[in-house]
Design brief:
- The protein is α/β, with parallel strands linked by helices.
- The chain has two domains: 242 residues, Ribonuclease Z/Hydroxyacylglutathione hydrolase-like (Metallo-beta-lactamase, Chain A, 4-Layer Sandwich); 142 residues, Flavodoxin domain (Rossmann fold), CATH 3.40.50.
- The chain is built from 13 helices and 23 strands.
- It binds flavin mononucleotide and fe (ii) ion (2 copies).
- The site of one fe (ii) ion (FE2) has 6 residues, from helix 2.
Length: 399
């Protein structure tokens, strides 16, 4: 059975949902599923914008057949070559051999790498090029590294529709409604959107900023991303989120406490710290055990909060490996502009704190609170004052 949805006159969503895959990119849990969006324009010419993941290829082909009826498919525009969107290009070209594939020079390099055996006609576009398809006009703007080097976006100028590729996408399947304004977006999607952005595109803040600046010159009335709902109202809300995330600016003043602990002593201090922070007026606090929290969640909340407390035992003269992995990840994702406080623990030679400071200080614009807190195996109330002073330093950094 086909499942399509009208976006605007002659523009249709022809994508699908995947609620079966446990891990996106075989790495990120997607308990709410994910949608792979593809769009079909039926003008004087028929145009498909991107395809979908292998997992939903049957539904996808049925959607296209249903809408095309007797018509042929004239163009396929390839905005992004990651296989969650390009997997079905081969099937499309085989089914519609007269189709012209539209992409940039880098797109075609990648098509040849992924589909070495397929022959097709091509139109190679450059920045700003226009494709006239009847009543509608399509312009192409390159968005390298959002989220691969070949990525581009397509702008339909008659109705102001931006086909934005991975930009403005989110995890989470579409439960019947296509448009973001049909959902309580903050409740249903925001967490997933943040986790999607920060983990998948988070490293590429500068390229995202370049795309946002290009987009600000276009009269955009609708955004059609490759994952998640379509935006036609209150677009500024989501653009603002993207602006914050891509400039590594915290969304909220608050503290995320990420701790590692084997025997519970570092954990004990992390909990005490959280309650003391609250006592002293900091109410926006999130505490995570790095061993039981997926790293993609830790990453998302690292982007979200202004202040991060890292608490780790020493392990084989190093940082506890799961904590170390998380720190390496936020470093690789270019996290910046955080205030960081350090708690470490050791029984015979405590070195974790020093090493966490080294890692964090190699990141951009990180304010490490000078006064750390070191645990010698465990803490009792003899150190209450000291812990209080440590908390005071964190509170002071909010001023
Ligand atoms: C495999 C392993 C390696 C460790 N390596 C060190 C070390 O190099 N230096 C140190 O001071 N403590 C080391 N420890 C001890 C823990 O860091 C210490 O007991 C700490 O108090 C544990 O904190 P927790 O109660 O929060 O788990 C190690 C523990 C384990 C299990
Ligand atoms: Fe992608
Ligand atoms: Fe994608």
């Amino acid at each position: 059975m086909y499942c399509v949805k009208k976006v605007l006159d002659n523009i249709y969503w022809v994508g699908g949902n995947d609620r079966k895959t446990a891990l996106f990119e075989n790495m990120f849990p997607i308990p709410n599923g994910v949608s792979y969006n593809s769009y079909l324009i039926l003008d004087e010419k028929t145009v498909l914008l991107d395809t979908v993941d292998h997992s939903i290829s049957r539904e996808f082909m049925e959607n296209i057949e249903h809408l095309l009826g007797e018509r042929n498919l004239d163009y396929i525009i390839v905005n992004h070559m990651e296989p969650d969107h390009c997997a079905i290009i081969g099937d499309i070209v085989l089914k519609y051999p007269e189709i012209q594939v539209v992409g940039n020079a880098k797109t075609f390099q990648m098509i040849e790498q992924f589909f070495p055996d397929i022959k097709f006609d091509r139109i190679t576009v450059k920045e700003g090029d226009c494709l006239e398809i009847g009543k509608r006009k399509l312009n192409f703007y390159f968005s390298p590294m959002v989220h691969w080097p070949e990525a581009m976006v397509t702008f339909e100028s008659v109705d102001g529709v931006l086909f934005s590729a991975d930009a403005f996408g989110t995890f989470g399947a579409l439960d019947g409604n296509l448009f973001a304004d049909e959902y309580d977006f903050e409740r249903v999607f925001l967490e997933d959107a943040r986790r999607y952005y920060t983990n998948i595109v988070g490293k590429f803040g500068k390229p995202v900023q370049s795309l946002l600046s290009k987009a600000s010159n276009l009269d955009i009335k609708c955004i059609c991303p490759l994952h998640g709902p379509v935006w036609r109202e209150n677009i500024g809300y989501f653009v603002d989120k993207y602006n914050k995330w891509s400039s590594y600016e915290a969304e909220e003043k608050g503290v995320m406490i990420a701790y590692a602990s084997m025997y519970g002593n570092t954990e004990n201090v992390a909990n005490a710290l959280a309650f003391m922070l609250s006592e002293k007026g900091i109410k926006n606090i999130k505490v995570y055990d790095v061993s039981t929290t997926h790293i993609s969640q830790l990453v998302a909340d690292t982007f979200k909060y202004s202040h991060i407390v890292l608490a780790s035992p020493t392990y084989n003269a190093g940082i506890y490996p799961i904590m170390e992995n998380y720190i390496r990840d936020i470093k690789a994702l270019n996290v910046q502009n955080k205030t960081v406080a350090i708690v470490d623990n050791g029984t015979w030679a405590n070195t974790a704190g020093k090493q966490m400071i080294k890692e964090i200080s190699e990141m951009k614009n990180m304010n490490i609170i000078e006064k750390g807190f070191s645990i010698l195996s465990s803490v009792n109330k003899d150190r209450e004052n000291e812990l209080n002073e440590f908390v005071d330093e964190i509170v002071k950094s909010f001023e």
